[in-house]
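Recall that a protein's primary structure is simply its ordered list of amino acids. Everything else, from secondary elements to tertiary packing, is in principle encoded there. The following example makes that idea concrete.
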Amino acid sequence: MDDSRLLRKRGMRYGAALLIGIAVIVIVGVIAMRQTDSGIADEKYNGHGGTFKNPLIDMDTPDPSVVYKDGYYYMTFTHNGTDVMVMKSRTIDFKQAEKKVVWYPPIDTMYSANLWAPEIQYIRGKWYIYFAADDGQNENHRMYALEAVGEDPLGEYEFKGQITDETNKWAIDGLVMEYEGQLYFVWSGWEGDVNIRQNTYIAPMSDPVTISGPRVLLSSPDQEWEMAGGPPYIQEGQAILYREDRVFIVYSGAGSWTPFYSLGLLALKEGGNPLQPEDWQRSPEPLMTLDEAAGVYGPGHNSFVKSPDGTEDWIVYHATTSPTDGWNNRKARAQRITWNKQGLPEFGKPLSLDTAIPLPSGSGVYQAGHANRDGERLSFGKFVATVSTELPLLVHYKNETGVSRILEVWVDNSHAGSLELPVTAPDEIGYAYGRIRLEAGGGELTLKAGRDDAADNILVGVRAIELTRYEAETASSGLQDMVSVDLSASGEGVMKLTSEQGSSVSFRPVHVPEAGNYRLILGISNPGEEEQTVKFKINGSKGGELNVPATGRNIFTEVVFEGKLRRGDNEIMIEGASGNMSLDYMDIITD
């Protein structure tokens, strides 16, 4: 075995690979912990945690529709009303998402203009996109459907035509609801041909593109909050939420051009018939509305998505930052849903743009089951890097072969290094930490068996990988307005640290597989001419002081400190800066 790239933890020197400019993995630790009979490593550990901040992407994304499937989030939205765009992201944060326009309408048809609120759905093994469009005249808005030709939601789509009931009235914001094995189409429509009010309608379907029965009026906007900004009076942006054996329709009420746009609820009673209006119960008050203190206006037109591990429900909605924004500046945001004792959803107040929100459960754990196994290669696809950087790599694995195995890591066609995977007991999951370099633009990350190992001996034991980096700009700050754009940073943003009282950065939640000693690596810039200092705390305990050498502007160095972390939730606090600095990220690896 060629061990020139196999470096032991006692001999590692941080920054060496950055200075040399080569791809290298440094093995810095291996730990093991018991797993449950379900095959999931100690259910208390489900990824390294971390946070994000709204909006999900810094571009207008009104009417967001989000689906999570096989390791990726997919979002579509009203894209200038001219086409259908789909975005793909490994996390609920879409700032580094892949974007593609998947369909352009032909010219001079009844669906060539004003494409509104596309809804992407995965139904019975196929991808569909439902959208409203017209010929340039709003009174001609109707619902239409696209069906993916293959299995890629960013691939080619076939136009399937109009979706309508026998009345063929004005219709927008339609999507499919599946309940007890039956498909239904739910949408916002007019009773007649005049724009007086938008009602909530439902109709049965024989397949995902065909309505098979008359439409049924479920609800009309007659509550005071729904009528704000009207006439016309609004119920639109219908979204479907499932919980155990129950189903809910969440809709947007009040004028979408006003700051009063809010979210209401229709709940189907247990055992109810979706086509019977009396079986639906409407909430008398909106579940989410504007919050002036948080600077959030017009929260609405949402969708729902599960966390990567399927244990949490999340709402994705658009909102603006000013009461006068109208239809401008509508950006997608997300937050977790809770459930009350009556089995009803609670959305809470919309969160401010400064709030550090814990990522959905299971985020950042890239499952081997979602990777592509091609002979002796296990590809996890492309990982994006905006700048050249070293990232911490954590491999979840089982090795019951009786001997240690070598796992090679490749980025594109370059051998990035090797990891040693010691033997694990039958009831254990092992975790091997290292660091890997990605060049600007990123690359495809692939695992292979070592030179002397058969692929089946090692690749079948790989459970998942993580990149255990925490971006500082998504962490909590002790002061307001401390996040700054920096295109030389790993996430194109930094958190500023100053000598001002209260200046701090809090990373929480931080999760590790097992309690023990870890090395925490700060990517930090000191633009001054003299060395500066900064202090750290771990879980509120007295920590230490770190020296940060002068780097110059937009140049980052790495400062390393050690600390004992507990299994479960941890908080890392960086504070007490002696001068102005910019914090880029924190990486965690084993000591």
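Confidence is low (pLDDT under 50) at residues 1-28, 34-42. The radius of gyration is 26 Å.
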